[in-house]
Amino acid sequence: MRIVRFSGASLTFGVEHHDIEGIMVPVYNPARTVADCFKYRNKIGLSVALESLRDCWRHRQATVDELMEAAEVCRVASLV
Length: 80
Hints:
This protein has 80 residues and is α+β, with helices and mostly antiparallel strands. The protein has one domain. The chain is 51% helix and 15% strand. It contains 5 helices and 2 strands. The protein has helices at residues 9-12, 30-39, 41-44, 46-58, 64-73; strands at 15-20, 23-28. A two-stranded antiparallel ribbon has the order 1-2. α2 packs antiparallel against α4 and α2 crosses α5 (64-73). It starts with 8 loop residues before the first helix and ends in a 7-residue tail after the last helix.
């Protein structure tokens, strides 16, 4: 497990709140998760980032616009 720190728009963008056993838990949406995979591709591997993009697209969990917006917030739009 690695801990990373976010601030500003990078911290709050793409947060969804889910009710899990009566507790509201903040979870990043699929588009934001893909963007984070590209942001940390050197730590987790480019193959993981590409697989997350393919999986997100295959299961239609996010649109191209959502993916690009998340990539812009995470400053990886040119990679995605």
